[in-house]
Specification:
mainly alpha; three-stranded mixed β-sheet; two-stranded antiparallel sheet; 7 helices; 5 strands; about 50% helix; globular
Length: about 130
Amino acid sequence: MDLRPHHLLCTQGYSGKGYSEEFVDNMNRLTAQLRGEEPVRIQLCFSTDDLCTCCPNKQGENQCSTNEKVLRFDRKTVEYFQLEEREYIYQELIAQIQKKVTPEMLADICSDCAWYPVSACREKILKRYHENRS
């Protein structure tokens, strides 16, 4: 499965809402696979990915109607978590991200996202952060 960097965060925070029925169906299928028990090999790619396939904002290969914002999300995710464009095991990578992520990092990466204030992203992504502080 191909994933762009900031979608590592989106797949953790996703809770069944989206831009269109087709988008939600695709997200439901892909996140179910990623959240399953079996390790999932992903190719981190710095362009459109498998989640983008059904997004109404996709305007072509490596082109989104909010491209500048999406590229900024990706760049910050790469910088904070020292990511490379290569293959990973999704579950292992998510565990590494959850060990490092802070509320400040997440706000810096995601604050411009329309879903950030209305979804469960922060709660789901920062779960381990809050557990470690208790």
